[in-house]
Amino acid sequence: MARPQQHPPTPLQTPTPDVARVWFLTSGLSALSVRLTRELLEHGNLVVVALRPIDFDQEGDHELSREFRELIAECQTGKKLDEGWNDRLLCIHCEGRAIGQCGAAIAEAVHFFERIDILLCCTLEGVPISHFQQPRSYSCDDFLGDFRLTRFLFFSVAAVIGTVEELNQSDDTQNLVRDQFETTFFSQVNFIKATLPHLREKSKGHIIILSNTGGHFSYPGTSMFCAATRALEGYCDSLAYETAPFNIKVSIVQASQEVMFLTNKIKVSPQLPPGENGHNSMTGVREILTNILNSHPRTAINETMRKSGTIITRYPILSDEARSTLVMETIFALLAIGGHENPPVRHIVGHESCALVKEKLKNMSEELEDYVNVGSAVDVYHGDTAPSSLTRETPERNLEMGDYDSAA
């Protein structure tokens, strides 16, 4: 599919809410979450972020938590401290895949700020079950002090990259599939279920799902990532009908897949050798990601690593400016939609993503028209009751519906 021509970006002016709201972010560590938290605090909102602890020495990735620690330090100094950032940010240790911890985290947030207005489900990653700990809340002072003492690294989990066959090679690669669904789907469902009683009680609320365009189309090597994404979107499509009577809105915000892949950890499965014809459908995705990772010496993947047959885990290291440019459109959309009286059920972020989704929907519509007579041939109509739209000839095929009067 040809990529549409990209227009120069227009300057974004962050929308200012008319009233301070309480946001609960299911993950506060990603580049997008950190910048969104900063914007929310800048405009007087109250923010709760859920964080999953894992031992720093085991993961060994200082870069992943750097921006969040800088935000915490910023809240405690100078003008930000005078503006009350320190008092309007609450950090809670919580693993989303443990339903009990989600309930405890929501209860702690309501106790601290008295309510939750907006639940933003933005978790992409998780930690092994063995690292589950009891939820614990922190003010900014407590959090930074505890970080220095225990050397915790807070990280959210990876988008799994690998073909269907590559992800079926071993127990380790099959576990990647399970982890993808546990993190992308089940952890978000747990937060939603834990929050619904509170939102229903106050008859108002907004649940926002930070998704990606994988909900509309997929690329080779992203099967499990896109499958988990569509599972969550399907769940929320039904949820929107169920919560509407309680004045609880549900919105799905689809960011570009570049935002998801380049601001979170990536786990790449071992590569299978090319088939007999030498074709490898995964080459394009691997090459793109490998080129980006190889642009920094700390994340470079050499040939020995690629042929080692092991799962490769990396967190793309980009400049702060590059990360900001990558995520600001999505942040603008979240700020504009969050708490809106009549928010969209589904929102596509970015001109290029909108064009790609429109093209996909156009192709689906054309294919439906091509085969509409075949699909409707199974229906039983009496006399001339068949809809005219189902009896016309298509441009490419001359398919006539069968006459089922005698059978009836």
Query: Strand pairing plus helix content: what structural class?
Result: alpha/beta
Give a quick account of the main beta sheet: strands, pairing sense, barrel closure.
8 strands, mixed
The CATH architecture category of the domain at 22-270 and 318-352 equals 3-Layer(aba) Sandwich
Straight-line distance between termini: 45 Å
Globally, the shape reads: globular
Radius of gyration (Å): 24 Å
Helical fraction equals: 40-55%
In spatial order, strands of the major sheet run 6-4-2-1-5-9-10-13
Q: What fraction of the residues are assigned to beta strands by DSSP? A: 5-15%
Q: How would you spell out the order of helices and strands?
A: EHEEHHHEHEEHEEHEHEHEHHEHEHH
Number of helix segments? Answer: 14
Outline the low-pLDDT stretches: 1-11, 55-60, 126-135, 144-157, 394-408
- Highest CATH level, the class of the domain at 22-270 and 318-352: Alpha Beta
The oligomeric status of these chains comes to single chain
The CATH topology of the domain at 22-270 and 318-352 corresponds to Rossmann fold
What is the mean predicted local confidence, pLDDT?
78
CATH superfamily of the domain at 22-270 and 318-352: NAD(P)-binding Rossmann-like Domain
Number of strands: 13
Pfam families: adh_short (PF00106)
Keywords: Oxidoreductase
Protein name: Putative short chain dehydrogenase reductase family protein
Region (Disordered): 385-408
